[in-house]
């Protein structure tokens, strides 16, 4: 399915730096999926639960990602710090619009003939806009069930020509991809007061920019949240503490450089995540750690060591 | 004779104790009755007890409160998540309808179930309240 041709590398793509594949690319999609999910529910992907009409939910996050396992002498170690801010707005009770603005810092330690060096890039990432529409809602006294497709576009707002000591950094290390990309999927949520189950399936179609095209990404996610406190519900609206277990299956095709597939890019990874979530009426505090259980990068791509996410969400009622 | 006297003294003590207990019980009942009477006196205001279907977590309750609070004449909104209920208190001169409440719950993303109207008990709060 994927081409195995050796890639003719652009002049700025050094021998030691061309393996930043899977980890670097997967970050882009992760920012979209995680930051875009703003109402209560799973931490690492989008939910189908509603955003009220004329209400905004703002989400601020911190993501930390480590990737290593470079089998080449370059022995690359990738570190990513990202601060995506997402805003969701309820146009109607069924239609919600989302915007995600990330600030990204990527750093890779690499062994070169002159010794170990660090190459990094920091800046505004690619802005994402998408819409979600609830096509099915079954509201009962003790549960709610939702189905909501979503779709949107990623704009090339992030820098894709940041330079390092060896010239322009390879595209996976840039804060932005440089391309206009489309994304879409389907989210399902089933929530009771004691537990919640969410799942989604999404696809991101990446396009070419300056001769480089990231491989398309497909993902399937599931989440189970269980209320561990309070054990019994009293009067009013008590705060909830959820224990959260999630899984993320992400598969990405090989990237293309000048229409030639890069054998050291793309792959499949399955993360198992454990986290906690405190839910109150006006805000949510949450944290989760994602551990790759299955990680099969193509060629010499880096492997994710782990990802950690901490975040807060605010409910904001608008006056109109 | 001696035994009869002793019996009478014991009997007297029992009667005294029973009298005390009955007096205390009567006072408690009277106080409770007065309190109940005060509570059931209407303020003239009305409140709607709305069953909100689909509301399952605290984050959802926020939007429901906000939208119900936008109905003209609302003085106070409270949510009981465990009972899936929103209690909406209106000013005496307000003219709320079921449709307004159903629309507000719908705009919050949920479904209104049974709406029960009742007079607002006196001394139950009335003004302000968290929204």
Q: What percent of residues of chain B adopt helix (DSSP H or I)?
A: 40-55%
C-alpha Rg of chain A, in Å?
20 Å
Strand content of chain B: 25-35%
Give me the CATH architecture of chain A, please. Beta Barrel
Detail the poorly predicted runs of chain B. 36-40, 125-131
Counted beta strands of chain B: 4
Named CATH topology of the largest domain in chain B: Alpha-Beta Plaits
Given the C-alpha coordinates, what overall shape of chain B results? elongated
CATH architecture level-2 label of the largest domain in chain B: 2-Layer Sandwich
CATH top level assignment of the largest domain in chain B: Alpha Beta
Which secondary-structure class do the elements of chain A indicate?
A: mainly beta
- CATH topology title of chain A: Porin
- What is the count of structural domains of chain A? 1
Can you describe this structure?
The complex is a heterodimer of chains A (320) and B (131). Chain A is mainly β. Chain A has one domain: Porin. Chain A has one helix at 21-36; strands at residues 55-68, 77-90, 95-112, 115-124, 128-133, 136-139, 144-154, 163-164, 167-168, 181-191, 195-205, 208-209, 212-213, 217-229, 240-252, 256-257, 260-261, 267-279, 283-297, 303-317. Chain A has a twelve-stranded antiparallel barrel with strand order 1-2-3-5-7-10-11-14-15-18-19-20. In chain A, strand 16 and strand 17 (260-261) form a beta hairpin. Chain A starts with 20 loop residues before the first helix and ends with a strand. Chain B has 131 residues and is of the alpha+beta class. Chain B has two domains: 1-40; 43-121, Alpha-Beta Plaits, CATH 3.30.70. Helix content of chain B is 47%, strand content 27%. Chain B has helices at residues 2-40, 58-69, 98-107, and strands at residues 42-53, 74-80, 85-90, 111-121. In chain B, strands 2-3-1-4 form a four-stranded antiparallel beta sheet. In chain B, a hairpin with a 4-residue loop joins strand 2 and strand 3. Chain A binds chain B through residues 39-40, 49-55, 90, 92-94, 134, 137, 139-144, 191-193, 196, 233-240, 279-282, 284, 313, 315, 317, and chain B through 51, 53-67, 78-82, 84, 106-111, 113.
């Amino acid at each position: 399915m994927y081409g195995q041709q050796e890639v003719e590398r652009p002049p700025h793509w050094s021998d030691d730096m061309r393996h930043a594949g899977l980890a670097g690319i997967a970050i882009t999609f992760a920012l979209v999926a995680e930051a875009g999910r703003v109402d209560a529910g799973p931490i690492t992907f989008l939910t189908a639960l509603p955003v009220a009409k004329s209400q905004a939910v703002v989400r601020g996050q911190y993501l930390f990602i480590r990737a290593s396992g470079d089998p080449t002498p370059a022995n690359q170690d990738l570190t990513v710090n990202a601060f995506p801010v997402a805003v969701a707005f309820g146009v109607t009770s069924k239609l919600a619009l989302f915007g995600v603005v990330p600030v990204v810092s990527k750093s890779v330690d690499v062994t070169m003939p002159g010794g170990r060096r660090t190459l990094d890039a920091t800046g505004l990432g690619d802005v994402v806009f998408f819409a979600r529409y609830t096509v099915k809602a079954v509201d009962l006294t003790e549960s709610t069930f939702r189905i909501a497709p979503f779709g949107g576009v990623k704009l090339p707002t992030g820098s894709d020509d940041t330079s390092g000591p060896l010239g322009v950094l390879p595209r996976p290390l840039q804060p932005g991809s440089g391309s206009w990309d489309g994304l879409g999927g389907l989210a399902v949520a089933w929530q009771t007061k004691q537990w919640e189950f969410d799942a989604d399936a999404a696809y991101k179609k990446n396009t070419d920019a300056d001769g480089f095209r990231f491989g398309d990404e497909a993902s399937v996610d599931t989440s189970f949240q269980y209320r561990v406190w309070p054990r019994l519900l009293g009067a009013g609206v008590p705060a909830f503490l959820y224990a959260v277990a999630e899984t993320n299956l992400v598969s990405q095709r090989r990237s293309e450089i000048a229409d030639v597939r890069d054998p050291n890019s793309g792959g499949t990874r399955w993360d198992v995540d454990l986290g906690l979530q405190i839910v109150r009426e006006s805000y949510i505090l949450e944290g989760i750690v994602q551990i790759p259980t299955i990680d099969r990068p193509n060629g010499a791509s880096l492997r994710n060591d782990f990802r950690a996410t901490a975040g807060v969400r605010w409910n904001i009622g608008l006056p109109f | 004779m001696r035994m009869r006297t002793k019996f009478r003294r014991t009997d007297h003590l029992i009667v005294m104790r029973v009298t005390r207990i009955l007096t205390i019980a009567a006072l408690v009942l009277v106080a409770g009755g007065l309190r109940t009477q005060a509570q059931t006196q209407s303020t003239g205001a009305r409140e709607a007890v709305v069953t909100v279907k689909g509301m399952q977590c605290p984050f959802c309750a926020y939007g429901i409160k906000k939208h119900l609070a936008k109905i003209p004449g609302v003085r106070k909104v409270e949510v009981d998540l465990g009972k899936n209920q929103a209690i909406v208190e209106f000013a005496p001169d307000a003219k709320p309808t079921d449709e307004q409440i159903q629309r507000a719950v719908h705009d919050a993303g949920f479904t209104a179930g049974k709406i029960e109207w009742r007079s607002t008990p006196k001394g139950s709060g009335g003004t302000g309240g968290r929204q």
